[in-house]
Each structure stands twice: as structure tokens, then as C-alpha cells.
Amino acid sequence: MKLRRWIVAGAVAVATVAALNVAPATAGRPYDPAAQSLRALAQRHGLYIGTAVDMDALADPADPRYRELAGSEFSTVTAENAMKWESLEPTRGTYNWGPADELVEFARQHGQRVRGHVLVWHNQLPAWLTEGVADGSIDKAELRRILRDHVTAVVRHFKGRIWQWDVVNEAVSDPWDTPSTLHYKGFWAEHLGPGYIADAFRWARAADPKALLFYNDYNIEAFGSGNPADDKTQFVYEMARDLRARGVPIDGVGSQGHLGTQYGNYDTLQVAAALRRFAGLGLATAFTEVDVRSQLTPGVQAGDSAEINPRLQASAANFSTLLRACLAERHCLSFTLWGFTDRHSWVPDWFENPPEGLATAYDEDYRPKRAYQEMKADLIFSGPPFVLPRVPQQPRR
Ligand code: XIL
């Protein structure tokens, strides 16, 4: 009896190890989860872990560590800039696919999936387009055709090689905009009206039936008042619900996840609840651009540990909040960092007054920070019954 119980227990242990896809001790060396990459640890959850990639850094022979880590720590990549309209079509009618193709090839060589970023956005548009609209040489009907042709050309070019497309990015205003009542903002809404959103999803679907089509935005990590006039998450939720109700082929909502340690931010349960509500619409979710910036006070810049330490710890906690929420929600398919090292981060260039930085998981010398270790710990210590493998999303027709 005793022996039987022992055998059963042993079989259960072996089965558990197999189910978790954890390698047993090999050649006398015990399995050390902390020595695994983020991507290896995420794989056990069926979660893809990603980074935005700066193509100049990737190609820089003087900075080999960037390429090594981009290839080894991540299972999905996003072009930080190379797939934006101004990069792809700087001159009207002449596409420059080179850098974007290089990233897709890098991903293939490293067994990674690609998030396509971005088809329709009001920033980083080529000058010929914005100037043509401003001086009246491109009218509304032509603008709509130009947008249709762009979405079609880009999606077709990468057909079959993009896992998730950010079809429309940042279409919704913020409470600090004028008017403060939330509304569709920016170049496309101003010139075409909000109908461009549904159009873009339909055009993208026509050009690639298999890619997952996402709406992507920031400050939608958690619900607020529940009133779409001032709660951006609610506004986006209702937009997505209406698109689904009208049969528009939207498959997911991407939450960028740009946080800052100076803000109140969120707790894990709030964020998980928001992801679950989007999943309730039949949508996949993803964190698409996670970073956690901090103000670079004179003390921080002078190396004062009393000012640096709390920032690094708050940063780690915020990365962890988003990652745990994603792990807890089975429809959250991927967790992408907006750059992985402070050596190449958009934050110091974009947030200058006051100066901000320290936003990523590795420092400028590629030393992993607490944020990296905490994400790793989250991936190691999460599991059944509350964290279960992902539910794959089927592209909507
Ligand atoms: C940023 C890039 O990181 C910068 O290099 C570029 O100069 C500006 O754009 N939301 C988005 C991203 O969807 O495309 C932005 O990327 C960051 C904010």
C-alpha cells in the first residue's frame, strides 16, 4: 500500500513536470529557472514576451549585446519605428521596405513572432501626406484612397509573417485635451471622421485573412469612472464593442502600458479585471509597449542611491503588476516591452521637462535591473490553478 502510494505520487510529479514543460535535472545539474530567459519561462504559460526593436542598434557591430539579448530573451518583436508610414513611404509611391524586412528576417532566424506596428496613426506620417492635406492638394476622397492603398500595400507586403497588427493606434483623446470630453482625435478623425477605424480593419483583413487585428492605445490599463466622457478605458471598450456588434474584423485590444513611477498607477487586480472585460467581448488582449519611466531629479543624476533605489523598486513593481495581470487573464497573448535597455529607450528623448528615464528592464550597460528579476520571478512562480495557459485567438472574418 505504502509502495503504491509512493508510485502514484511519483507518477503525478513526473506528469506535473511534463505538463509544465520544465526540464528535469540534466547531467547532475539541477534545473535553475532563474537561469532561463524570459522567453523560455513565458513559454510554459503559452505567453509571448516581446520587445520593440531599434533597427540602428540591432545593426550596430559596436553594440553586439543588443542583438544577442533581442534574439535570446524575447519570443516576439515589434519594429519601434521601421513599419511606421514615414519610414515605409518617405516619398509618395516609393516604398522602403528594407529595415522592416530585416526585422522580419531577424524574427524568422530567432523563432520569433512579429507584432506589426503600425498601420494607421496620426504621428510619424510622411510630410508629403500631411503637407498635401494642409495645402489642399489632397482632398478628402483622395485621402481615403491613399489610406486604403497604404493599409493594403503594407499588410499585403508582410502577409503571413505578421502575428498581430496594430491596425489603429491612439485614436482617442485624453482628459487633458480640448475639449476634455473624450472624443476621436487626430489627423484621421479630423479629415475623414471616425469611420476610418472600421474601414482600416476591413482593409487589413482583406489583405491578410490570418493576422490578428488590434486596436492599440495608452492609458487603458484599468477602468475609471465608467463614464465614456472621462474614462478612456470605457470609451475604448464601447468602441470595440460597437465594432464587434457591426461585424468589423477586430481581434484584439492592445494596452500600451507606458507607466511612470511618479503616478498612482494601478494594482494587479484592477488591471486583470480590465483585461477580462475586453476578453468578454470576444477579444484577445496584449500589453504592447510596456515601460515605466522615472523623473531624473538632480539627485538621481548625481547617483544618489536614496533617490534611485525607490524608483527602481517602484519600476519593478509596476512591470510586475502588468505582467501578473496578463498572466492571470488567459486571453492576454503577449507582453511586449518598449525597448529593453536604458541604452536605447525613447523616454529620455521624449520626456525632457522634467527629464525622465530609467524606463526599461536593463540598465545602460545591459545589467538586468530589479524589474527584469521581478518579471522573471512572476513567470517562475505563477501557475495553476489561477494562471493557466493562453487561449489562442482565431482571426475574425
Ligand atoms: C516612439 C518611438 O519609440 C520613438 O523612437 C519615436 O521617435 C516616436 O515613437 N506610442 C506608440 C509608439 O505607439 O509608436 C511610440 O514610439 C511611443 C508611444
TrEMBL record:
E.C. no: 3.2.1.8
Leader peptide range in chain numbering: 1-27
Domain GH10: 52-378
One Pfam short name: Glyco_hydro_10
PROSITE patterns in UniProt: GH10_2
Uppermost EC category: hydrolase
Catalytic activity field: Endohydrolysis of (1->4)-beta-D-xylosidic linkages in xylans
The keyword Lipid metabolism belongs to this UniProt entry's keyword annotation: no
Claim: Signal is one of the keywords in the record: yes
UniProt keywords, alphabetically: Carbohydrate metabolism, Glycosidase, Hydrolase, Polysaccharide degradation, Signal, Xylan degradation
Family: Belongs to the glycosyl hydrolase 10 (cellulase F) family.
Identification of the protein by name: Beta-xylanase
Organism of origin: Micromonospora maritima
